[in-house]
Amino acid sequence: MIRRSINNLLNSRHHCNSSILFSSSSSSLKQPIMAENKPKIIIVGAGMAGLTAARTLPSALFDVSVLEAGNRIGGRICTSEFAGARIETGATWIHGIDGSPIHALAERIGALVPDPDLPWELMDGYPHDDISAVREGGRDVDDSVLHRVSTLYKTLKSRAAESPVRRCSMGSYLRSGLQAHLDSLGDGADAELEKSVFAIFEHIERTYTSADELDDLDVLNETEYKEFPGEHVTIPRGYSRLVEWLAAELPAGSVRLGRKVSRIDWSPAGAPVNVHVEDGEVLVADHVIVTVSLGVLKAGGLEFCPALPSEKAGAIGRLGFGVMDKVHVEVDEPLPRVLLAFGRGGSAESVPRWMGRTAGILPIYTGARVVHVWLAGKEAVEMEGLAEEEVVSGVQATIDAFGGGGGRPVRVVGMRRSGWAKDPLFMGSYSYLAVGSSGEDFDAVAEPLPGRFCDSSERPLQILFAGEATQRPYFSTTHGAYLSGIREAERLLQFYRRP
Ligand SMILES: Cc1cc2nc3c(=O)[nH]c(=O)nc-3n(C[C@H](O)[C@H](O)[C@H](O)COP(=O)(O)OP(=O)(O)OC[C@H]3O[C@@H](n4cnc5c(N)ncnc54)[C@H](O)[C@@H]3O)c2cc1C
């Protein structure tokens, strides 16, 4: 067990004859660090943020351990194989390629090279205007209606992003926009159809943001959240390829799986940081980087002693963290990619409630026999609680209610689903700006301890926080998680660079 203060470490160079180590990224360190006195860093969580932080801290300078509660790395990045295809149960897209560090990494390690042996979630044609929509019973939605409503939705969204409207929920903002649109329609228009088609875009919004209801989502989410410019693309070799690469570059043994951290003892007065692992082991560290999800922090799934300062706890409580789940099904015949316009008064009796706000049936590439449906909020939670057969029959009923494969019967023959809400290591999918929260709350979650919320010159930076929900304005994404890992590693490098 290594137990020493940072001051001891820095002083130790005067009476220690070990060699002084520098790595390429550390050559500018003003304060050399001795080989056997390397600061001990514990990173909690081996997702994108944790592995990136570990990768950024030179092993020549820091003794880094990554403690991961689960039995795999990657966290909310989880690529697997199903029905002869590579599927993503977690992150799917690189949201914008121009300047995205995730895109640069994927390109650099060859993850964007198509795999001739295994098809992947290419998602070609989605999301695009040329997608068609179908009503219950299998009737197509007229293209002009789809186009008109899609344009309305985009206009409302870009208006909200460009000239922030007075604070309100996204739900009420969209409803008033829709009402104004309906009022402008002539007498002959089918208002119910316009509403049903509008609801498709609301369902997509719920899956993109993971908000249970759009009434929970602050309209300011539109201005706070940023993506990189350019196309949104998927990763042919799988998203997990990225985290595998990050982990492979770490010294052997530095990532420890099955190590659930239950409590972190820190001390504004300057005692060392104790990291309690569920099996009773206690590790001592100079610094701990916590990367667990906002859902875990909200639920108190990781205890801090003393408790987190009220400013930080308040921000954690205010921000939104919702659920988005994916159900992948294997069908015996390819299905077209269609959006589903459910009737406003409720869907067909055969369609279960939890499928009634699904935006579409989406083959993972054109002609694929693997199709996915996305569920958000309480519908996702309900699906997670069902038996496999119930999920299969619910998806089957929905395919049937919307006319199957253009009149042909199409059978669901296999299913794989995510369960992000019920998994105690995540407790949801990603963060969003909830009504009552603000962009500053993301900054507050990122604030290290001791730091702005409780100063201590004795032993600063005992606990640092990384993860998607700490990275404004890139929250909820893999690039947000990645950048947050670099940010906290750089914070430590900067700390040891001090004159
Ligand atoms: C269904 C879904 C779809 C998504 N789609 C996209 C997308 O298309 N594009 C995109 O950019 N992003 C997407 N995301 C979001 C993206 O996956 C996340 O933002 C990102 O992966 C989060 O990384 P992280 O390191 O912050 O957290 P995590 O990946 O959650 O890593 C935290 C790690 O901590 C571990 N842990 C938890 N508790 C403990 C404990 N007590 N002790 C030790 N370890 C613990 C967890 O097991 C986990 O491995 C999606 C997410 C989901 C769930």
CA radius of gyration is 25 Å
The count of β-strands is 23
Overall geometry comes to globular
CATH third-level topology of the largest domain: FAD/NAD(P)-binding domain
Biggest sheet record: 6 strands, mixed
What is the helix fraction of residues, given as a range?
A: 25-40%
CATH C-level label of the largest domain: Alpha Beta
Secondary structural class? alpha/beta
**Are any ligands bound, and if so which?**
flavin-adenine dinucleotide
* SS field, number of helical segments: 14
Q: Strand share of the residues? A: 15-25%
Strand order within the widest beta sheet: 8-18-19-20-17-21
Commentary on this structure:
The protein has helices at residues 6-12, 48-56, 101-108, 143-162, 170-184, 191-209, 221-224, 240-248, 294-298, 310-318, 377-384, 388-401, 439-446, 478-497, and strands spanning 20-21, 33-34, 40-44, 63-67, 79-82, 85-88, 93-95, 132-135, 232-234, 255-256, 261-265, 273-277, 282-285, 287-290, 303-305, 320-322, 324-331, 338-341, 360-363, 370-376, 412-417, 430-432, 463-465. With 499 residues, it is α/β, with parallel strands linked by helices. It has three domains: 6-73 and 239-319 and 436-497, FAD/NAD(P)-binding domain (3-Layer(bba) Sandwich), CATH 3.50.50; 79-127 and 321-417, Alpha-Beta Complex (Polyamine Oxidase, Chain A, domain 2), CATH 3.90.660; 144-224. The strands form seven sheets. Strands 8-18-19-20-17-21 form a six-stranded mixed sheet, sandwiched between helices. A five-stranded parallel sheet has the order 10-4-3-14-23, covered by helices on one side. Helix 4 crosses helix 5, helix 4 (143-162) packs across helix 6 and helix 10 (310-318) crosses helix 13 (439-446). The longest helix is centred in the first third of the chain and has 20 residues, at 143-162. Residues 1-32 have low confidence and may be disordered. The structure holds flavin-adenine dinucleotide. The site of flavin-adenine dinucleotide has 41 residues, from helix 2, strand 7, strand 17 and helix 14. GO terms for molecular function: polyamine oxidase activity. One of its GO terms (cellular component) is cytoplasm. InterPro entries: Amino_oxidase, FAD/NAD-bd_sf, Flavin_monoamine_oxidase. Pfam families: Amino_oxidase.
